Structures are given as structure tokens and as C-alpha cells.
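Below is how a single chain appears once it has passed through the pipeline. First comes the sequence as given, then the structure the pipeline wrote out for it. We keep one example in the README because the format questions we get most often are answered faster by looking than by reading.
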Amino acid sequence: MLIQLNDENFQEETKNGLKLIEFYTTWCGYCKKQKTELESMDKVWIGQIDAEESKSTAMQFNISSYPTFIILKNGKEVERFSGLRKKEDIMNLLMQHL
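Resulting structure:
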């Protein structure tokens, strides 16, 4: 399930559990392609945050390329990766942190 995040709701939405966060921009071609893969992961909580609209959160995580994914476990970063990824690759990374 895709959840829209922003500077206002980020902390509350990500403080508990295992969360996959995608930092994206609307102009990024890879981000547009990535959305198809993410939509097919309907049983996984995925937070999407527009890095241009939510600059404070993007700066907090030092985001400089898109898409950038961060896996948070109870609000703490445990994994980071960038670029276009297949559903299987993302699931494998998530499984390592269960």
C-alpha cells in the first residue's frame, strides 16, 4: 500500500514497525517507472515522499538522488539504496530486517 508522506506526517507515520520509504521527485523518469513496481507490492507498507515538496525531511536524510529508498525499523534507518529496483530485490532487502 502506497502512503503519501510529507514533512508534517513523516515522524508519526514511520516511528513504529518496518517501513519502506521512497524519496522521489515528479520530474524523475526512474521514479515514474519505479511506481509500477511499488504498486504491485500491495501488501507492503510503502511511504512515498516528494523530496521537492518536503525539503526538510529530504535534507534530514541527505537525499541527493532519486529514487532513494530508506528502510526504517522503529524510526531508525537500517538500510538505504538508490535507483530503479525490481519488486523482488526490494522484498529481499526488506526480509533481511524482519
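The chain has a mean pLDDT of 96.

See the next section for the split statistics.
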